[in-house]
Design brief:
Layout: E1 5-10, E2 14-19, H1 39-44, H2 47-50
Antiparallel strand pairs: 1-2
Amino acid sequence: MSRDIFIKKSNLHGRGVFASRDFKKGEIVLSWHPKKITKKQVNELSDMEKGVCTF
């Protein structure tokens, strides 16, 4: 994941994506291309790939 954004606990929705720097108007912050994966593939992902945060 980019160092320009990070995931942390959010008071609004449990977890959220936050900026670690200012972005210029029109700059792409995140490009996301989801794909379907099997339960087995999910189990093989690292915590970082799953977006698991430890606080």
